[in-house]
Amino acid sequence: MTLMLPILALWGLGFVFLFRIPVCRIGVARRQYPTLSVIVPARNEERNLPTLLRSLAEQDLSPTEVIVVDDNSTDSTAQVAREAAARVLPSKPLPPGWRGKTWACFQGAEAAVGELLLFVDADTFFESGGLRAVVDTYLEARGVMSVGAYHKVKRAYEQLSAFFNLIMTAGTGAFTILGQKLQPTGLFGPFLMLDRRTYFASGGHTFVKDKILENFCLAKVFRRSGTLMRCYGGKSAFSMRMYPYGLRDLIEGWGKAFARGAAQTPLVTLLMIIAWITGGFTSVVWFVIAVFTGSRNALALSGILYLLFALQTLFMLIRIGSFRFYTALLYPIPLLFYLAVFLRSSIFVVLKKKVSWKGRQIQTGPPRKQAD
Question: What pLDDT shows up at residue 351?
């Protein structure tokens, strides 16, 4: 019983750092919407782009333009974009100190004509009516808005993304028990919406040109300028299918940013997440020990705790992705996978100073000339 109460307290922390996730909703009918430029930085995205561009073409609210910034792709990214009637903007040579994505986003913003700028990743897509829902939600208060894409999980190995999604969502600091009383400390990478005046007045991507987690770092820029920031969940509006091409793709994709992401997460939030993970692991270890020792009392108490952590994990996951119930029930497996990839990524960050992604060696420190 003495072990039960501390673990139960750690379990409760999960509801502190990830409590309520508001979603985007269609508002009252408007006679006129601001002009909207959708900007898609894309490198070797011939397989993902068709889904995104098709979803934009099928929306009941049409963007003014869709700009695909071709970041020196070696596949048919540009051709796919043109066939979908998108405006293709070939990226200029990478200036010293910039990374590929931030440079592509900045070029897209400079070329855009819309009053509103919407930056989205190529592996995302909009659900039916989703674009209207995110624009209506944005227009309620304007400022800066970011949406966490709802993760459409299809293959079994993709279930291993569970804790990456969960911790990424919690790491924004936007969905704590205090709700929107606190400004987010981070923004989601796949989605950023703001008006062009705010973007250029803040300096936009020029202040985060060398960052891997550019949107997370942009939150600091907007906080300093006093700009209102809001985060939402993407369920029923904005979705993604991440790393559908195999386990190696998934490991490289998540590993690219997560070790650096931990350093960007506020210390209080990070400590709560670590404490919660510790509680979850402790309940598992206690349960296993109870099985081998044959202690009925310990088995019952540890079993209750394990079930509580599993149900809490399910409660969290169903709001951020189409994860299966068995992923939560067997939560130690995706959690161990998360920790293994995190450790691997940390080694690359600390020792090798680089990670591999989409045919590039990405420096994890300040980039040298022409590196990305």
Answer: 63
